[in-house]
Structure formats: C-alpha cells, structure tokens
Amino acid sequence: MAVVPYQEAADDKKSQVARMFDNIAGKYDFLNHFLSAGTDIYWRRQAVNKLRELRPARILDIATGTADFAIETLRVAAPEAHITGIDISDGMLEVGRQKLAAKNLGHRIRLELGDSEALPFPDDTFDAVTASFGVRNFAHLEAGLAEMRRVLRPGGQLVILEFSKPTAFPLKQAYNFYFSRVLPVFGKVISKDQSAYTYLPASVQAFPDGAAFVAILARIGFLSPAWQPLTFGISSIYTARK
Length: 242
Fold this sequence. Notes:
The protein is of the alpha/beta class and 242 residues long. It has helices at residues 13-35, 39-48, 68-73, 90-103, 141-151, 171-191, 196-206, 211-220; strands spanning 58-62, 82-87, 109-113, 126-132, 152-163, 223-230, 235-241. Helix 1 (13-35) packs across helix 4, helix 1 crosses helix 6 and helix 6 (171-191) runs antiparallel to helix 7 (196-206).
C-alpha cells in the first residue's frame, strides 16, 4: 500500500500531499524549527554550500514550500542569480510569497504552482536544481527525478536534502521512538492536522535513502551521484551532475 497522508481518502498521493501542506502551511516553519530543535537550519546551510563552487545563476527549487531553501541558496549563487521555486501546495506558496515580500526578494525568487513530474520548463534550462525534504513526497519518485535531470543543463548540479534513517545503536532506537511517538503528538496538536505528522515518519521509513537513493540517481542517468549523511544520518545530502 502506498504511503499517503490520509489513508481513508480516495484521491491520489499527489492530491493528498497538496491538501496536507495546504492544511499545515501556517505552522510549517515553526514546526520545522521546533521539532528539529533548529537543526533544519544547519542542514539547509550545509546542502546549499554544495553549490558554492558552481555559483549558479539559474536555479530551480523543487517542492520549494515556504521558500526557505531558495532564500538560503542566494547566499552562494551568482550575484545576478534568479531562482524559480515550484510547489503543488498553494498554501505553502502563499506563506513563501509573504516571506519574500517581507525580505524584499520578490525580484530574485519567483514562486509558481507546479508539478515536479511535469515541469513547465525546456530541457537544459537550469544551472542547478535543488529539493529540500520534498522528493520523498513524489507520487512517482523516478519520474520526478527524471524531470529534474531533463531541465538541468549539462554540467549542472543537483542537490537534494532529505530525511534518512540512522543505523547505529542507540541513536537508531532513540530516533525511531521520537519520530514515531513524540513528533506526531506535537505535530498534531500544533498543526491541527490529524495525519500530517504521522505521515512524516511513515514517508521517511518508506523512502529509499542512502546508497539505495544514490543507485536510483545513477539509474536515472545522473553523473557522480554521492551521499553525505548529516547529524548521525538523520538527514542526508545527495549530489550529482548531468
């Protein structure tokens, strides 16, 4: 059975994920920082640093959400860089647009409603394609990754930040307890969504992380795929080239 936010609902995963993020958009940033004790900020910085040498000017941020990763990317991008962020959740994009307006970054970052499996961009468009905690939500993982490769220019850089699963004792046991017992309770109370933070650990458990994901990137046709665990393997950065 596919891992979806609302097991009893009849609509497909893509529709359910969009609805879930619409429901929690107003609390998403707070919950990210609160439930990770601020470690998500460190993770994003480490992932964005992978683009420092390339200094990309044309960047696509997939599953951009409230635009935190896109904003952080400006730190290492070319001075003239422009970032396009796409997401399937109107609610998340609206929070992101408010954030960009407050930071006066609307001329540098454009947010659009879009489907990761049918990107509305020509082949070889972007110097870098990024995704932060989004690819595990794809309805069809390999189709989404193939689209990311299609719009990336030859020599361009892929950077993906995603949750992964620690394997060492006793962190593995502590992590599983927190993710399956503690996080859903706080997430439910704060977000008011009954399922969103139950779906989160389930989606992480189902995601082919680590070496398995590197193998998928190679199968899609990416060059030099690599994997860097962060914080004892709680999250990971994946990089590759086209």
